[in-house]
């Protein structure tokens, strides 16, 4: 055990010698090391003989120091086992402060992680793995297991109206990998710019830049993407969240949907449909996927990150048939395909009805939480106007004019309430002050408490 203490001398003397009075110097050095956590609770100290030899001082000096620190509670003696570091909490003035946790995480983009169906997924993982053939344990088809693609094609057709054969589905590690694959194909074809929604996900600009592309912001209003503004650009591809615009929450109107698809067909353009949380609708029937109308000019993108958990890293891409081969080639060169084990679990989860059951349960859960947020806002902050409330995992509240939404976010953060400023999603347009509030991760009672605190801040 003494071998682990060969550098204790350097630890204790890192800031100087023990001084003219080695007993006091050693006592101070040990006390500081324990208080700051450099000597951790539960570690055994060297014997007085060993430490005295390391430091070149009398053993009696070390014995006296140990006796004093035992009396102060920094050390504890265990009969027949030596001297150990006691459970002493580091002092705040000598240890860097850790950021306070967000007591109320109301940021958008995250489902209830506590609602993840752990037992059902473990069953699916076990059962799905047992059904894999020996050959399927080798390098996978870059597009994914055919059994998974078959189940997904059936699910997407049944729930979202997506038109595809199983061979047309590509399994991805989520939305961003799907976008990366499409960007790689478009860049290879000579495209330099892709249109994106404004306001929208600001990380898309970074993603596009990493692929040698520029993002062109296109305004969004109450009907969705402004197609007339898109038509005035040279862009031949656009990323849209047509079913539930992120972050405004509006659904693209029928007229805009027709105009967008007409634009794509007349220009040879590509609509990249990010259908990130379309499974969650509370007050109206879900809007079908754009891909169902013109599959030849729409690339459909979906993910489990919003319905189950981002940790799964599972999503899907249904590109137009003309792009499928290039997409799969880029997928093969990127990572040689995803995990067959996770895909096998998803296959079983879909086939057994586990995914449908999970969606039914979480729809009820999220509707209850949304309603709790709306009720609390009406009671405590009646001059904050909610919009985009019909579905998804978040809503937007428009603040009274004159407020700065970024300052409001900073002020709420001092109360450990985490929300997002609507203005932070805009690139080229002016928006009224607002907050983007996610409600999936907190219980109704905690949502109510958070809103009450917002009203006091």
Explain what this protein looks like in three dimensions.
With 457 residues, this protein is an alpha/beta fold. The protein has three domains: 2-94, Winged helix-like DNA-binding domain superfamily/Winged helix DNA-binding domain (Arc Repressor Mutant, subunit A); 104-111 and 357-456, Aspartate Aminotransferase, domain 1 (Alpha-Beta Complex); 116-352, Type I PLP-dependent aspartate aminotransferase-like (Major domain) (Aspartate Aminotransferase, domain 2, 3-Layer(aba) Sandwich), CATH 3.40.640. 41% of the residues lie in helices and 14% in strands. It is built from 15 helices and 16 strands. The chain has an eight-stranded mixed sheet, sandwiched between helices. The longest helix has 27 residues, at 354-380. The chain is globular and about 90 Å long. It starts with 7 loop residues before the first helix and ends with a helix. 40% of the residues are buried. Residues 1-6 and 91-97 have low confidence and may be disordered.
Summarize the structure.
By secondary structure, the chain is α/β, with parallel strands linked by helices.
Task: Give keywords.
disordered N terminus, 457 residues, globular, 16 strands, transcription regulation, 3 domains, four-stranded antiparallel beta sheet, 15 helices, Aspartate Aminotransferase, domain 2, transcription, eight-stranded mixed beta sheet, Aspartate Aminotransferase, domain 1, Arc Repressor Mutant, subunit A, alpha/beta, pyridoxal phosphate
């Amino acid at each position: 055990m003494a071998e682990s203490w060969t550098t204790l001398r350097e630890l204790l003397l890192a800031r100087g010698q023990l001084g003219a009075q080695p007993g006091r110097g050693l006592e101070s050095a040990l006390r500081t090391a324990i208080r700051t956590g450099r000597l951790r609770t539960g570690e055994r100290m060297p014997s007085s003989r060993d430490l005295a030899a390391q430091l070149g001082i009398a053993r009696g000096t070390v014995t006296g120091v140990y006796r004093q620190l035992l009396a102060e509670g920094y050390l504890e003696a265990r009969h027949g086992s030596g001297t150990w570091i006691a459970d002493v909490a580091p002092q705040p003035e000598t240890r860097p402060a850790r950021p306070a946790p967000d007591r109320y995480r109301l940021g958008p983009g995250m489902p209830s992680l506590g609602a993840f169906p752990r037992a059902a997924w473990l069953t699916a993982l076990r059962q799905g793995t047992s059904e894999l053939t020996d050959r399927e344990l080798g390098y996978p088809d870059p597009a994914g297991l055919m059994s998974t693609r078959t189940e997904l094609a059936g699910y997407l057709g049944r729930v979202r109206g997506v038109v595809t054969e199983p061979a047309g589905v590509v399994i991805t590690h989520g939305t961003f990998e799907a976008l990366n694959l499409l960007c790689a194909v478009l860049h290879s074809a000579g495209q330099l710019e892709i249109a994106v929604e404004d306001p929208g996900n600001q990380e898309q600009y970074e993603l596009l830049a990493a692929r040698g592309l520029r993002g062109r912001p296109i305004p969004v209003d109450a009907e969705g993407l402004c197609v007339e503004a898109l038509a005035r650009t040279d862009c031949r591809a656009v990323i849209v969240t047509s079913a539930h615009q992120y972050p405004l929450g509006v659904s693209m109107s029928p007229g805009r949907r027709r105009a967008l698809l007409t634009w794509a067909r007349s220009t040879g353009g590509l609509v990249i449909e990010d259908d990130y949380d379309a499974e969650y609708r509370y007050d109206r029937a879900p809007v079908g996927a754009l891909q169902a109308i013109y599959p030849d000019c729409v690339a459909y993108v979906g993910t489990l990150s919003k319905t189950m958990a981002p940790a799964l890293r599972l999503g899907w891409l249904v590109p137009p048939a003309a792009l499928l081969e290039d997409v799969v080639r880029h997928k093969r060169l990127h990572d040689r395909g995803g995990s067959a084990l996770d895909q096998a679990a998803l296959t079983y989860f879909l086939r057994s009805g586990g995914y449908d059951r999970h969606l039914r349960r979480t729809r009820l859960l999220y509707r209850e939480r949304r309603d709790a947020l709306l009720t609390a806002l009406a009671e405590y902050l009646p001059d904050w106007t909610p919009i985009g409330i019909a579905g998804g995992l978040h809503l937007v509240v428009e603040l009274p004019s004159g407020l700065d939404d970024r300052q409001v976010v900073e002020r709420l953060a001092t109360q450990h309430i985490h929300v997002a400023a609507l203005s932070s999603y805009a690139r080229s347009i002016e928006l009224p002050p607002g907050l983007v509030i996610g409600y999936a991760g907190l219980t109704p009672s905690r949502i109510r408490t958070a809103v009450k605190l917002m009203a006091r801040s």
